[in-house]
Recover the amino acids of this structure.
């Protein structure tokens, strides 16, 4: 099964992608995590990506597509996967279609919807783990020990691009570049909409039901 999680920044994709992949017993990837790994290691790609990420802009399609396709085409992903944060542009969506053309394509696109005014509040309360990138939120998913990741004990920090200026830019980019993908997948009968303005548990169950259907 090959699934895409679509939705605005702050909708909870990063939280749900892990649960859903476990449920489906497939692998998963968040393109933002891949970029953050590169920036932490200071690779050439990381240095390039950082200049876009910090201001809430998208990293150019050519490098993004290459990075994610390397992951998608790896043998470990043969059983299927859940993608979070990719595709984010029409160019990325068509590149993904081409890469999967002979493998049967995408099975479902799950669109997590959250009202815009809630996204800003959600993003400003988010902290992520420096080591394993697990997201937490002061609203509904606090770590057991303040500032420490429950899973690996890593240090939690606020992403540079979760600060107000970058958040505004990311939401604008989402509306212009990524939101049109909902129509792209809807017109092909792949899109399922989920109300993301509920508890983590409830959203998780709704997603699990949709992939079972
Ligand atoms: P995220 O963790 O998904 O919010 O992504 C953080 C940042 O990484 C984004 O604001 C972009 O700068 C970059 N990024 C992640 N995924 C993509 C993508 N599919 N296309 C372009 N840039 C991306």
């Amino acid at each position: 099964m090959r699934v895409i999680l679509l939705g605005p920044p702050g909708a909870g994709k990063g939280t749900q992608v892990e649960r859903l992949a476990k449920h489906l017993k497939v692998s998963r990837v968040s393109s933002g995590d891949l970029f953050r790994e590169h920036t932490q290691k200071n690779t050439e790609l990381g240095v390039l990506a950082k200049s876009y990420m910090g201001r809430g802009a998208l990293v150019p399609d050519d490098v993004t597509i290459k990075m994610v396709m390397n992951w998608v085409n790896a043998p470990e992903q043969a059983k299927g996967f859940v993608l979070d944060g990719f595709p984010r542009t029409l160019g990325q969506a068509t590149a993904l279609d081409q890469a999967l053309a002979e493998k049967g394509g995408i099975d479902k696109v799950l669109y997590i919807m959250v009202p815009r005014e809630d996204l800003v509040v959600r993003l400003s309360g988010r902290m992520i783990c420096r080591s394993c990138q697990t997201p937490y939120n002061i609203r509904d998913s606090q770590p057991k020990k303040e500032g420490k990741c429950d899973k690996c004990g890593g240090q939690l920090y606020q992403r540079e691009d979760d600060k107000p200026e970058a958040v505004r830019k990311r939401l604008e980019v989402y509306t212009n570049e990524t939101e049109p993908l909902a129509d792209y997948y809807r017109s092909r009968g792949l899109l399922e909409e989920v109300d993301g303005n509920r508890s983590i548990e409830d959203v998780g169950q709704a997603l699990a039901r949709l992939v079972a259907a």
Remarks:
- The domain at 2-114+178-212 is CATH 3.40.50.300 (Rossmann fold).
- Strands lie at 2-6, 27-30, 81-84, 108-113, 126-129, 135-137, 156-157, 191-195.
- The two ends are 12 Å apart (CA to CA).
- The chain is about 45% helix and 15% strand.
